Amino acid sequence: MKLKILQDxxxxxxxxxxxxxxxxxxxxxxSTVVVMVASIIIAIGIFIMDQVIDYVMHVIYSGFQLF
Length: 67
Description:
With 67 residues, the protein is mainly α.
């Protein structure tokens, strides 16, 4: 009788080896491009929000002098 942990490891290996479908290189490359573009868009959005908040804080702390 095998230990439960050894049976779990064997089951995990068999599932990865025989039941998992892995992406092709072209699918992987496409997914990578999507993630990179989304990351850049999110970074630009955060940068814009940061600049707006910075401007608002400068206006508030400078006594509402706009320029």
